[in-house]
Amino acid sequence: MLVYEKELSLPVSEGHADLLRHAAETVPATLDEKETPVRFVITKTDSKGYRCELGVLSGAREQRFFPEGSIFNLYKRRFERIGAFTAVFLVPTGIGAEIGGHSGDSGAVARLLASACDLLVTHPNVANAADINELPENALYVEGSVISRLLLGSTGLQRVRSNRVMVIVGSHPDETFFNATVNSVSAARAAFGLDCPLVARVGADFSMRSSYSSSGSAAGRIKGFECLCRILEKHRDRYDAVAVSSLVDVPHCFHADYFKDDASMVNPWGGVEAMLTHAVSMLFDIPSAHAPMMTSKEIRAMDLGIVDPRKSAEAVSVTYFHSVLKGLARSPRIVSRRDTDGDSPGLLTTADISCLVIPYGCVGIPTLAALEQDIPVIAVRENKNLMANRMEDLPFTPGRLFVVENYLEAAGVMSALKAGVTIESVRRPIPHTTVYGSEE
Question: What's the pLDDT at 437?
């Protein structure tokens, strides 16, 4: 089984209407019968159409693994529950985001936004800062594709007290780094009470390689994915979540180039990591996250000097793994639509989502789902990235798209939405009340 990325162009949809359905109808024509989409993003929109990047899983059915449904399946919510104000905060992986594009450097933003809502749903790319994960108590750590499914209405989330976290460690030519990963697990067991029922090793047939797409986004290729799947299948009754630590093959120079102060290099590891966890969560309906293993003792011994604060968490870690273990320890259970009537007590569904906060220009399944579900979207300009899309061109219902300059302003919009206060009422000048004449 392979996981890889394809680039494709889709024809424009008039008025950019029904983009989810448009993608669901046009993307399959670009695939062969062995390929299943796992990740989808529109990287550029113009008058001719959409430039897209598609993560693909190939050979799953040949290996007797059967993904359920389509990543584009939408179940329209009939109503919004208002008992609590629940926000979704995303910084898509591998797009060179100014905030959150490096090593958990949007964690402080998550803490800010969590203070403006009752519950914050976010993903590993926001929270994982190597050995640091400081998500507040009112935040949920959820794999990115699962958040897409939550917004689409095909999946719900059930909060848990704790998870049994199985650890899978990839092959490494130096046993030192396997030992370091196991020591990270042991430290988590002793320091915060992690429940880890087993550590499994996956053979050298499983490998991950990083690459870049034509948009400049991080991508990659995963070989031998079935090796990982067989471990997950074999031990399915022993774990609730899976943490994977494995090598990601990148050119040797990347390890130094990435940390240079004058470099604007997109994090090369994140894209292929996201493809891995999307595929795992899709096939097994389990919380998952990945951390790259240190490549060699030579890389570990490099003197990087004083680095950009956004990258510094990686400069002081050996395994980058503790944040993953801490996040997965309480990641909510994934409840498929087929397993519930949608109204189970305590189940978080799309009916509970009050808003989505996302960098400006990011048009993937979460944004398109929010558009279809009439969920307010707050797009943040300051979080610059590689995506070339005008959010204002999408057919949002009036008052459902808020383009703000920064996350401080985003928190203010969230507070206004939570209070039921219109934005125009707290700004000046305030528009005159519109009065229409009588209609004969």
Answer: 85
pLDDT tens profile 2-30 = 999 999 999 999 999 999 999 999 999 99
Helix (H, G, I), strand (E, B) or coil at 166: strand
Q: Are 279 and 68 in contact (CB under 8 A)?
A: no
Four-residue CA torsion sign, 19, 125, 240, 205: positive
Distance of CA 71 to the CA centre of its chain: 14
**Do residues 113 and 227 share a domain?**
yes
CA 156 to chain centre: 16
Q: Which residue has the higher pLDDT, 65 or 170?
A: 170
pLDDT over 90 percentage in the chain:
91
Token pair of 322 as six digits:
């503790």
Instruction: Specify whether 214 is located in the same domain as 177.
Output: yes
Residues 300 and 190 in one domain: yes
- Least confident window among 162-166, 263-267, 406-410, 431-435: 263-267
How far are the Cα atoms of 86, 112, 192, 359, 414 from residue 118, in angstroms, in the given order? 6, 12, 25, 21, 11
Count of domains forming the chain: 2
Pairing mode of beta strands 207-212, 199-201: unpaired
CB neighbour burial string for 357-384, b if at least 16 within 10 angstroms, e if fewer: bbbbbbbbbbbbbbbbbebbbbbbeebb
- For 176, the token pair is 């030192």
Fill in the DSSP letter of residue 132: B
Domain that holds residue 100: 75-440
pLDDT tens sequence across 194-212 = 999 999 999 999 999 999 9
Cα distance from N-terminal residue to C-terminal residue, the chain:
67
Residue 376 contacts residue 54 (beta carbons within 8 Å)? no
Residue 19 φ/ψ, nearest 5 degrees: -65, -35
* 120 and 176 both lie in a single domain: yes
Q: Are residues 322 and 367 in the same domain?
A: yes
DSSP state of 16: G
Q: What is the mean pLDDT of residues 115-138?
A: 97
pLDDT at position 69 is 82
Is 419 part of a structural domain of the chain? yes
Following CA atoms 45, 46, 50, 53 in sequence, which dihedral angle do they give, to the nearest 10 degrees? -50
Q: Are residues 196 and 51 in the same domain?
A: no
257 and 406: one domain?
yes
pLDDT more than 70, % of the chain: 98
Helix, strand or coil, per DSSP, at residue 112:
helix
